[in-house]
Amino acid sequence: xxxxxxxxxxxxxxxxxxxxxxxxxxxxxxxxxxxxxxxxxxxxxxxxxxxxxxxxxxxxxxxxxxxxxxxxxxxxxxxxxxxxxxxxxxxxxxxxxxxxxxxxxxxxxxxxxxxxxxxxxxxxxxxxxxxxxxxxxxxxxxxxxxxxxxxxxxxxxxxxxxxxxxxxxxxxxxxxxxxxxxxxxxxxxxxxxxxxxxxxxxxxxxxxxxxxxxxxxxxxxxxxxxxxxxxxxxxxxxxxxxxxxxxxxxxxxxxxxxxxxxxxxxxxxxxxxxxxxxxxxxxxxxxxxxxxxxxxxxxxxxxxxxxxxxxxxxxxxxxxxxxxxxxxxx
Length: 330
What we know:
Blueprint: E1 2-4, E2 7-9, H1 20-23, E3 34-38, E4 42-44, E5 51-57, E6 63-65, E7 71-75, E8 78-81, E9 90-92, E10 97-102, E11 115-126, E12 129-140, E13 158-163, E14 173-183, E15 186-192, E16 195-201, E17 208-212, E18 223-227, E19 235-237, E20 247-259, E21 262-273, E22 283-290, E23 294-302, E24 305-317, E25 323-327
Parallel strand pairs: 4-12
Antiparallel strand pairs: 1-2, 3-5, 5-10, 6-9, 6-11, 7-8, 7-11, 11-12, 13-14, 13-24, 14-15, 15-16, 16-17, 17-18, 19-20, 20-21, 21-22, 22-23, 23-24, 24-25
């Protein structure tokens, strides 16, 4: 790409005359092993180091790129930034990766406003197959979306999780949790801990997520499910049906968890301990919460074995009133 008078012209390299590696046909499945990941899902606007992202070639073939810098930044459908790049093919060897960074500035050199930004990398070739990869990250004033909230509750907030092969871009199991309505401080959430429930997050320095089957006030029907900001090793019994009789223990307050949308640091982990005499056909093992984002991962086990769910997408109302989107490799 060259720049003329403040405008950018993209010089596209066509498949004609590509190296021999591109001329060899491959099946579509290896594309799923080419992954684009962000070092973090949420960035503080203007922070040093910028937004870092990595393209990894997990195949046994050389990945061909249209140029050494085949990436661009979009806000919605509007192009925000693309680096200057010469018309020379780039390559990533099998098992290798390449990392780039974006300083959160637009083409005019100004810092972009807070919002969600999609990083697109392509054109890419494996054999004759041409494709691209994209991820969406958030740029916020503070580096957090919903402050320090461990479980942000706002209408239309949504978290999408993927498990199994889907963690690497292929077919897998999916689960979505959505805030659909509210009544005062209680919010109706579809599919939270396996069921549709009403929930509210208490205030104070040690918040608790309370849940119940339906709105009926703050009385005996409300059950404390997740307790946050407790000391390491803190243990309590859960009375709710999905975790009936189980104890939750604070297993960590600074876990690092890798997900399709990026790596979350300083996660608060709750581990599930079921009674010795309990028969658990399908149960939960651990939950991870990231400040300002909420539940970013959880592990389940069933008769076939453990299944690990990780955050693949999110739509969260920020502390600044803006709606932020996160989206993993697609």
